[in-house]
Specification:
The chain is mainly α. It has one domain: Four Helix Bundle (Hemerythrin (Met), subunit A) (Up-down Bundle). It contains 5 helices and no strands.
Length: 163
């Protein structure tokens, strides 16, 4: 298995775990204002940056058609100023990213610079950075789901079969 195949497999595994966290999130928790960063916002933030950093650079970024710039950030005040994404929309976005992972990773020069001036490492390290970021927020959502609904997000070790 090549380096790129390993990276692709780990993106798909991470996205499968992320999907579980989104699917299992109770509706009340999805919009719960008790959290400074509501669950829908954590999910969108994690996914938009995963998609963003899969690209060669900022100029090459081609956002999801329903992308809303203001929703990708945290600390949105009381959160009522930004229209939340629905679970169905985020699941659609997961599908959109999953469909692009293999092609975007295949196009990367893993030895080249990150492509993002604020990240001072190469493309290979950027992939680890990006997957770690996605998993940080997957864990955050999984913990919320566990506390609210007693449901676990199952471990996915590599690209799920059928992908």
């Amino acid at each position: 298995m090549s380096e790129k195949e390993v990276i692709q497999s780990q993106y798909h595994a991470a996205l499968a775990m992320f999907r579980q966290a989104v699917e299992k999130c109770p509706e009340a928790l999805w919009l719960d204002p008790a959290y400074k960063n509501r669950s829908w916002n954590v999910a969108y933030h994690a996914l938009v940056y995963t998609h963003f950093y899969l690209h060669e650079n900022e100029e090459a970024f081609s956002p999801w058609p329903k992308h809303r710039q203001e929703a990708r950030y945290f600390d949105m005040g009381d959160g009522d100023d930004v229209q939340p994404f629905t679970r169905a929309e985020l699941l659609e976005f997961i599908d959109f990213v999953e469909a692009q992972v293999d092609g975007l990773v295949d196009a990367l020069d893993l030895e080249g610079e990150s492509g993002f001036y604020w990240l001072k490492f190469n493309k290979l390290e950027l992939q680890f950075y990006n997957i770690r970021h996605l998993m940080l927020h997957t864990g955050e959502l999984a913990e919320r789901v566990w506390q609210a609904a007693g449901e676990e997000v199952g471990w996915v070790g590599k690209r799920p079969k059928g992908d």
